[in-house]
Design a protein that fits this description.
The chain has 450 residues and is an alpha+beta fold. It has 15 helices and 20 strands. The chain folds into three domains: 4-103, Rossmann fold (3-Layer(aba) Sandwich); 132-201, Dna Ligase, domain 1 (2-Layer Sandwich); 207-448, ATP-grasp fold, B domain (D-amino Acid Aminotransferase, Chain A, domain 1). Helix content is 35%, strand content 26%. The strands form five sheets. An eight-stranded antiparallel beta sheet has the order 13-12-9-10-11-14-19-17, with helices on both faces.
C-alpha cells in the first residue's frame, strides 16, 4: 500500500486529492510555487515543498524539481491531478524510472491517446465510430484543401498533439480554409511543439457527451455512465450534467459496456474519459482524456463511487471494489465551474477574497481551495471553485442549484456565479434544449442586451 503521495498540482484538485489520501490514511506532500505559499493545499498537507517561481514552467511543469521533491520527502507515488503534467507521457515514464508510482495510466497509453490521430485509429479498431475526416495529419495546404472538398464544408481543423480548443479552427467555405489552416498550424506549434493538424467534418448542432471509465491491472473495466458537457465557451466547459437527457438507459448501458470491454482489451489502467459528439442519435469519438476530469464529481454523485479513491487504489495494484452490475445510477447532478472572471466580459479577475460563504444543505457540494483573505495569483487557470448539485430529478436539481448559487458569496473578485444563475433560469436550459454552441449564442445575446 502507498504510504505517502506527492500531489503535483494546485488549487481545488490538489485539495480534492489530499482529502482522498487522508480518507485512506495516506500521508501527503504538497508542492507549490512561491506565489502559492499560502494556498489551501499547502496548509492542509502533511508536508510541503517549494518547487520554483510563479511561472508554471519554473514550478508546476518543472519535472526535475517535482521528482526531487518526491524523492527527498520519501514519497511512494505522485498524483498529477488534471492539467499541468497529468497527460505527459515522458513525465509518467520518468516517475516510474525513479522507482515511484505514477497515479494514472501507463505512459504508452498516455502517449497513444495524447496523439489525437493515433487515438482515432485505436478506437476505430475498438469498433467505435469517429467523425468523418482525414486519415491522419495533413501537412500540405493543397492536400488539405482537396480533403476538405471531399469531406464537405464546413470543416474543422484540429491540432493532432493537444486539446482544450487550442490549434482548432473552423472553415465554413473554401475561401476561409487557407487562413484557418495556417492559423491552426501556428497555434498547434506554439501550444504543443507540434504543428501537425488533421481535418474533421464540422457537425452543426451536436451535444458533447463523455463516458467515464476506470480499470484495474487485472483486466476489470467498468463504465460509470456519461456526462453532458455541451455548455462551453471557446471549447472550454462551463457547466456539466450527469446523466445526459438525450441518452436512454438502454443505450447508456449497452454503449458503456462496449467501451469498458474495449478499454479492458487495451490493458488500460486507472481512470479515463472518452469524449464524443452526439448528433442524430449517433456518438462520434473525438478524444480520450487519460486523467481525472474537472467534472468527475457529478459522476461520483450519481454513481456513489469515489473516483479519486479508486484511482489511488488501482494504482496500488488493488482490484476494483465493484463490478459493472454493482453500479446503479441515482438522480441527476449538475456542476458549475466558478471561474475568477467577469461574468460579462470574461476578463480574468485577481485579488484578495474579502468575504467567503459557501452554500449548504442536502445535495450541495463545493470543491474549492478558497478562504477569506486568500489572494488569487495572476499566473494560473481561473477555475477557483466548483459547485456540484445532486437531486432525485433534473427539475429538483435545477431548483437546488438556483438556491445554492444565490447563497454562494465570493467578494473581492469577479466570478461566474451571476452567469450560472442566468443559465439556471433560462427556459432553454430548463427544457434541456441546448448544444455545444448554445452558450456562445447566450453570451452574445446577453451582451447585446446590456
Amino acid at each position: 500500500m502507498i504510504k505517502k503521495i506527492l500531489i503535483a498540482n494546485r488549487g481545488e484538485i490538489a485539495v480534492r486529492i489530499l482529502r482522498a489520501c487522508k480518507d485512506l490514511g495516506i500521508q501527503t506532500v504538497a508542492v507549490h510555487s512561491t506565489a502559492d505559499s499560502e494556498a489551501m493545499h499547502v496548509r492542509l498537507a502533511d508536508e510541503s515543498v517549494c518547487i520554483g517561481a510563479p511561472p508554471v514552467r519554473e514550478s508546476y511543469l518543472n519535472v526535475p524539481a517535482i521528482i526531487s521533491a518526491a524523492c527527498i520527502t520519501g514519497s511512494d507515488a505522485i498524483h498529477p491531478g488534471f492539467g499541468f503534467l497529468s497527460e505527459n507521457a515522458t513525465f509518467a515514464h520518468m516517475v516510474e524510472e525513479h522507482g515511484l508510482i505514477f497515479i494514472g495510466p501507463k505512459a504508452d497509453h498516455i502517449a497513444m491517446m495524447g496523439d489525437k490521430i493515433m487515438a482515432k485509429k485505436t478506437v476505430q479498431r475498438m469498433g467505435l465510430e469517429t467523425v468523418p475526416g482525414s486519415e491522419g495529419a495533413v501537412k500540405s495546404l493543397d492536400k488539405a484543401m482537396k480533403i476538405a472538398e471531399e469531406i464537405g464544408y464546413p470543416v474543422l481543423i484540429k491540432a493532432a498533439g493537444g486539446g482544450g480548443g487550442r490549434g482548432m479552427k473552423v472553415a465554413m467555405s473554401p475561401d476561409e480554409f487557407a487562413e484557418a489552416y495556417t492559423i491552426a498550424q501556428r497555434e498547434a506549434q506554439v501550444a504543443f511543439g507540434n504543428d501537425n493538424v488533421y481535418l474533421e467534418k464540422f457537425l452543426k448542432n451536436p451535444r458533447h457527451i463523455e463516458f467515464q471509465i476506470i480499470a484495474d491491472k487485472y483486466g476489470n473495466a467498468v463504465h460509470l455512465g456519461e456526462r453532458d458537457c455541451s455548455l462551453q465557451r471557446r471549447n472550454q466547459k462551463v457547466w456539466e450534467e450527469a446523466p445526459s437527457t438525450v441518452l436512454t438507459p438502454e443505450f447508456r448501458d449497452s454503449f458503456g459496456r462496449k467501451i469498458a470491454a474495449a478499454i479492458s482489451k487495451l490493458g488500460y489502467l486507472g481512470v479515463g474519459t472518452l469524449e464524443f459528439l452526439y448528433e442524430d442519435g449517433k456518438l462520434y469519438f473525438i478524444e480520450m482524456n487519460t486523467r481525472i476530469q474537472v467534472e468527475h464529481p457529478i459522476t461520483e454523485a450519481i454513481s456513489g463511487v469515489d473516483l479519486v479513491r479508486e484511482q489511488i487504489l488501482v494504482a496500488c495494484g488493488e482490484k476494483l471494489s465493484f463490478t459493472q452490475d454493482d453500479i446503479k445510477f441515482k438522480g441527476h447532478a449538475i456542476e458549475c465551474r466558478i471561474n475568477a472572471e467577469n461574468p460579462l466580459t470574461f476578463m480574468p479577475s485577481v485579488g484578495v477574497i474579502r468575504r467567503y460563504h459557501v452554500p449548504g444543505g442536502i445535495g450541495v457540494r463545493i470543491d474549492s481551495a478558497l478562504y477569506e483573505g486568500y489572494k488569487i495569483p495572476p499566473y494560473y487557470d481561473s477555475l477557483i471553485s466548483k459547485i456540484i448539485i445532486h437531486a432525485r430529478t433534473r427539475e429538483q436539481c435545477l431548483a437546488r442549484l438556483r438556491r445554492a448559487l444565490g447563497e454562494y458569496v465570493i467578494e473581492g473578485i469577479d466570478s461566474l456565479i451571476p452567469l450560472h444563475l442566468r443559465l439556471a433560469n433560462d427556459p432553454h436550459i430548463i427544457n434541456g434544449d441546448f448544444d455545444i454552441r448554445f452558450l456562445e449564442r447566450f453570451i452574445e445575446n446577453n451582451s447585446d442586451s446590456k
